[in-house]
Write a structure and sequence with these properties.
With 436 residues, the protein is of the alpha+beta class. It has 2 domains: 262 residues, no CATH class; 142 residues, no CATH class. It contains 15 helices and 21 strands. Strands 1, 4, 5, 6, 8, 9, 10, 11 and 12 form a 9-stranded mixed β-sheet that branches. Strand 16 and strand 17 form a beta hairpin. Helix 4 crosses helix 5, helix 5 packs across helix 8 and helix 9 crosses helix 11. It is globular and about 70 Å long.
Length: 436
């Protein structure tokens, strides 16, 4: 059972913190050094000051904790009653206006496979250790995990809708309108919790952060913390037609010279092949690749500067057992990212799984425009551009249910969830639990 509950969130107090648009920050793992400087300059209260603190080693984490506690005192307020926080993102993508609707709550922390929370990607030790050290020093959950649950009738929205009043946060950031409401009516919260009780929760983004919360919960429990086993999460409906998943393209580099024709020969038993001029713009490329996937997985390969690409589609008679993929779960055997990584990257190009995990010969680009610009250029170290379709949410769910995981960077749920909306103070939650 998925056990969710309300919490007394820490939020920026607009009267003291300033314009909310100057306070938000993207997830730490998409911010480079230049971006961090720009965000930090927007406000001394921008969340980047503690989400991605400056410094090295232990000093960095101590500084993050000091920044967080300083902002808590000068710029934040803790809500007096437990609440869930309904959160809408209004955005435009591929020519269409959309709204992603969800809510922020806390959830009982169970390890992947040992409870209702399921993963679709592997995690790496480095990012988890970094976030764990920051969690230890701040004693707070300062970033959101993004989870999905199935709700075809959109019942949760019907339950929450009448309880919405004026937003407690409204800000334009990164070209997106962010709106946050506090819902603290016990009957509404109880109804939503009951509605989700028999649901699986599928992690869409933040696998590392979720596993880190689980590890820290174990530590807190061992230390006798009064309320260690709940973590902050954002939940959205996987059946919402406005949910957006974008592709992540692969850029191959650093290999000994190779001929694309040899690569194509090696995968010919499994793919139909069409060679054609490289599309001139990203919209045309996406449409062509989506059309190629009408009957199954499809991907595009382009040598930078050649002016052409090859569209590969799984053959109708493709047999995953004959292709050597019979050991994989059924949900994985025909996925485009799986056949790319297994048959093209590993088998044809020799990029084995450790090299894939370490990104030794791979870079990832979420922008089709940027990846296409690389393919159009001859002045690049990239040897092969691998263009992908977005992974359907139904496939993400099937993989989670199978207990298996996809290759890294198989999904890109758009837009990202910024830091700075609401925080969960573990020290204060423990004190509340002790008082009863």
């Amino acid at each position: 059972m998925a056990k969710i509950r309300a919490f007394r969130g820490l939020r920026y107090d607009k009267s003291r913190a300033g314009d909310p648009s100057t306070l938000l920050a993207p997830p730490y793992d998409v911010v480079d050094a230049t971006g961090r400087l720009e965000l930090a300059a927007r406000s001394p209260n921008n969340a980047i000051h503690f989400i991605l603190p400056e410094g090295d080693g232990a000093a960095k984490y101590a500084r993050g904790a000091a920044e967080f506690r300083a902002q808590l005192e000068r710029a934040m307020v803790r809500d007096g009653r437990p609440a869930i926080y309904v959160y809408h993102q209004h955005y435009r993508v591929e020519g269409a206006d959309r709204v992603r609707r969800g809510f922020i709550c806390t959830i009982e922390l169970t390890r992947f496979g040992a409870g209702p929370v399921l993963a679709h990607e592997r995690t790496l030790a480095g990012p988890k250790l970094d976030r764990l050290e920051l969690m230890r020093t701040t004693m707070a959950h300062i970033e959101l995990v993004f989870g999905l649950f199935s709700d075809p009738a959109r019942r949760w929205e019907q339950l929450a809708g009448p309880a919405l009043g004026e937003p407690v946060l409204e800000a334009s950031f990164d070209g997106i309108l962010h709106r946050l409401w506090r819902v603290d009516q016990p009957r509404v919260i109880a109804a939503i919790a009951e509605h989700l009780a028999d649901r699986h929760i599928y992690i869409a983004d933040g696998h590392h952060r979720y596993e880190t919360m689980c590890t820290f919960a174990d530590e807190l429990e061992g230390r006798g913390h009064a309320d260690p086993r709940f973590g902050m999460i954002y939940l959205a409906n996987l059946d919402d037609p406005e949910l957006t998943v974008l592709p992540t393209h692969r850029l191959v580099h650093g290999l000994p010279p190779f001929a694309l024709d040899r690569v194509l020969e090696s995968v010919a038993p499994w793919f139909d092949r069409v060679d054609e001029p490289l599309p001139a713009d990203a919209a045309t490329l996406r449409a062509r690749l989506q059309a190629a996937a009408a009957t199954g997985a499809a991907l595009g390969l382009a040598v930078p500067g050649a002016g052409r690409w090859t569209v590969l589609s799984l053959r109708r008679d493709y047999d995953p057992v004959e292709a050597g993929l019979g050991g994989l779960a059924e949900a994985l055997r025909r996925l485009d990212v799986v056949v790319l990584h297994e048959l093209v990257l590993e088998r044809a190009l020799g990029i084995d799984k450790p090299a894939q995990a370490a990104k030794t010969n791979l870079r990832y680009d979420k922008s089709t425009d940027a990846a296409l610009a690389v393919a159009q250029s001859s002045a690049t170290d990239v040897q092969l551009c691998c263009f992908m379709n977005a992974t359907p949410v139904s496939d993400v769910r099937a993989v989670c249910d199978s207990g298996e995981v996809m290759p890294q960077k198989s999904t890109f749920f758009h837009p990202k969830i910024p830091g700075g909306l609401v925080f969960y103070d573990l020290d204060a939650a423990g004190e509340d639990a002790t008082r009863g």
